[in-house]
Amino acid sequence: MSAPVLDRRGIVVECANCGQRNRVPYEHIGRTTRCGKCKGGVAPPGTPAAVTDTATFDLLVSKAPVPVLVDFWAEWCGPCRMVAPELAKVAAQNAGRLLVVKVNTEELPELSARYQIQSIPLVALFRGGRLVNQILGARPASAIQAFLDSNT
Questions:
Q1: How many structural domains is the chain composed of?
Q2: Mind telling me the catalytic residues?
Q3: Does 7 map to a domain?
């Protein structure tokens, strides 16, 4: 199964039944939708999705009905690579209740500047278009989950 893909119209997820890629509008993230091909259920994404541009990020965090957990990272960052599998665990455990996305700070420096990110890895929680809280440094999935539980 391929990773979900974000674009300006929503998130594209693969149907587990037939493999068809289906776009789910941001407003419907968290709901089980129907596949356009086989009409089976398409579950909410349980893996992190990469954010490729600032406009998509803004649309996602403002329109998503579920909290959005953002991993601010960079390719060269060793601790960022260590936290990636932990965030994948959190995404799988919270599919439908939360969306996990990754923002490469080298590719989207304007987001780093906007949120005054000076050190990575940094995990930030957004709800209703607003930054709720953030934690700095590589953490195990259990610590990230505890951070979520205390902020949602």
A1: 1
A2: 77, 80
A3: no
Residue 60's domain spans which residues? Answer: 45-151
The region that residue 86 occupies, defined by phi over 0 for left and psi between -120 and 50 for alpha, beta otherwise, is alpha
Burial 65-96 (b: 16+ CB within 10 A, else e): ebbbbbbbbeeebeebeebeebbbbbbeebbe
CA dist., res. 101 & res. 104, Å (int): 10
CATH number for the domain that contains residue 59: 3.40.30.10
β-partners of residue 24 are: 11
78's CB contacts (< 8 A; 6+ apart) are none
Q: What is the pTM of this model?
A: 0.94
| Inside any domain, residue 24 | no
The CA distance from 77 to 102, in Å, is 14
Examine residue 40 and state whether it is found in any structural domain, yes or no: no
Kindly report, residue by residue over 90-120, the tens digit of the pLDDT: 999 999 999 999 999 999 999 999 999 999 9
**Helix, strand, coil % in the chain, rounded to nearest 5:** 30, 30, 40
Count how many Cα atoms sit within 13 Å of the Cα of residue 112 in the half-sphere of its side chain. Answer: 17
Q: Assess contact for 64 and 24: CB atoms under 8 A.
A: no
Peptide bond into 121 cis (omega under 30): yes
